[in-house]
Amino acid sequence: MIMKPKVIVVPDVHGRTFWKDILPHVGKSRIIFLGDYLDPYYDDAIVFNMTQESVIQNFEEIIVFKRTHADSVTLLLGNHDC
Fold first, then answer.
1. What is the pLDDT of residues 14-50, one digit of tens each?
2. Tell me, what DSSP letter sits at residue 80?
3. What are all long-range contacts of 18-25, with beta carbons under 8 Å and residues at least 24 apart?
4. Which residue of 12, 28, 32, 35 has the lowest C-beta tally within 10 Å?
5. Residue 10: φ, ψ to 5°
């Protein structure tokens, strides 16, 4: 029997879109974002094609995601957000 996650923790986003991998678990799990939504590491190969506009758009999508699933999603602030 495969256990479904009850809590999913999404660490430092830094403008990346990997958080969208959790979408199949919406409604089945509690989702907690640990913050650091912005401030990408532009010199990191992972964010090679990232622009300020795409980072802001990604953050806006996270906010909409939270509003849409208010009961199961928690957004915390990280040190990069402060």
1. 989 999 999 988 888 999 999 999 887 766 655 566 7
2. T
3. 19/62
4. 28
5. -105, 110
